Amino acid sequence: HELAVEIDVLSTSKITLLLHASASSKLRQSIYGKNDELVPWQLACPGVTLNATPAKYALVLNGLIGSAHSASNKNTSLTILRRAAHSQMKHVVCANALRGVDIFIHSWNPEVAGSMVATYGPTLRGSMHERLEVSLKARSQARSISRAAQMVLAHELARGVPYEMALAMRTDLVVMEPACLRVLPADAITLAKRCCTLQPGTQRHAACLTPANQRREAKSMNRSVLLGGCMVDSYAYNRRSRIEAVNARYFVMDYWVAAKPNTLASWALIDTSWGEYERRNRELGIGNLWAHFVWAQHIHDVLNASKSLRFSTAVRGGL
User: Fold this and answer.
1) Are the C-beta atoms of 143 and 13 separated by less than 8 Å?
2) CA distances from 315 to 4, 70, 156, 193 (A)
3) What is the C-alpha to C-alpha distance for residues 176 and 255, in angstroms, rounded to an integer?
4) How many CA atoms lie within 13 Å of 309's alpha carbon, on the beta-carbon side?
């Protein structure tokens, strides 16, 4: 069965959202042939029954596929999609099959639209694929996250049961190992942990030189390398007008974020109020509008959710 739901997108236009209740066998055959064993989601989940109803979690895939490495085209997009989708199905959907994971996708890759049902199987509940509308990556990603989150909210209304939590991640993120979603707090905003290398002789080096790190450094063959928490100046190097509190507070990883669906929908504000985020970014002395910093601004300064912010290694992945 399929359910068409009309929803507002960013309060400026309406779309018709097709909520998929089951995969189309004809579409699977047209892309992968008649042998269902060739369908990626089945290869990812051998022997796993994906019938938890209603699902507790929503996987919100978003963004421009392949933007980290190459320009988007049909061949590269499909190659990246299939590799990433297999890992997402295996390590997120199948690993949490008992509690259930529904998938919602928004991408800036209309060339992959026809592959999505076969790639993600019966867990795909909604997908939307549009041509790229803005070139600024952080703004584009925020717009994509919010549109995918709107699908989740629409499906919650349609099924009459809310999701406990939604996990938003890049569509091209390859998940490296099973992700246990139940360890992520449902009422928090959780982001990925990230370590950076620090250089000796700097203030950051001294602050991170704990006894454990001292032992690690002493045992290292290269004693100029030390691991510690990433900060703003790990990625934005203009430090003249930046205070140390900003340096420590306004960096987050942008691979994935776990939160309530309505919280993810608030990422629309990054897009619709982009000028305010630019102004605040300059005021903080960051000087770079990457999602690493814009997300931190959104959480700390717009949502005022600093106390709800958590960091976790429950989802490990790379591009």
Assistant:
1) no
2) 32, 24, 24, 9
3) 13
4) 20
**CA separation for the pair 190, 251 (Å, rounded):** 14
Strand partners, 2: 20
The count of other CB atoms within 10 Å of the CB of residue 64 is 20
Cα–Cα distance for residue pair 66/59, rounded to 1 Å: 19
Whole-number pLDDT of residue 70: 44
Give the 3-state secondary structure of residue 297: helix
Is the dihedral angle over the CA atoms 158, 141, 316, 105 positive or is it negative?
positive
Q: Which residue has the tokens 């900003």?
A: 246
Structure tokens at 316: 């490990």
**Per-residue pLDDT averaged across 214-240, rounded?**
58
- The larger pLDDT score, comparing residue 31 to residue 111, is at 111
Dist. CA 210–CA 205, nearest whole Å: 10
State how far the Cα of 252 lies from the Cα of 296, in Å rounded to an integer: 6
Q: Which of 74, 171, 81 is nearest to 119 (CA)?
A: 81
Beta bridge partners of 20: 2
Which of 156, 19, 180 shows the shortest CA–CA distance to 93? 180
Nearest to 137 by CA among 170, 104, 111, 174: 170
Model pTM? 0.78
**3 state SS of 299:** helix
Nearest to 60 by CA among 16, 94, 106: 106
Six-digit token string for 250: 């306004």
User: What would the pLDDT profile of 188-214 be if each residue is shown by its tens digit?
Assistant: 999 998 777 655 555 554 555 455 544
Instruction: Report residue 214 CA to chain centroid gap.
Output: 34
Tokens of 313: 């290694």
